[in-house]
Amino acid sequence: MSYVNGKDVLPPGLLEELQGYIQGELLYIPKKTEQRVKWGENSGSWQEIASRNEEIFCSHSSGCSVNELQEKYHLSEESIRKIISKMRLALNR
Fold this sequence. Notes:
- The chain has 5 helices and no strands.
- The chain is elongated and about 65 Å long.
- By secondary structure, the chain is mainly alpha-helical.
């Protein structure tokens, strides 16, 4: 997120109105709801994690133990078990 000076982007009347509420501080203005994207969609992280989770589930279904998966993916036992549980649930829907 980059810093933008209000003087450079806001009409003078709006800037003056905002200065009645806040002056000299940073103000975050969120995107409109319809313009928001889910976490990891822009960077591709979401797809990478989804793919990794599918690998974990398939490996476990093929006989890999939770301990082996922990070592291979550097995740906690709890994380591995959650992934397996969520994937199993999604499959049964």
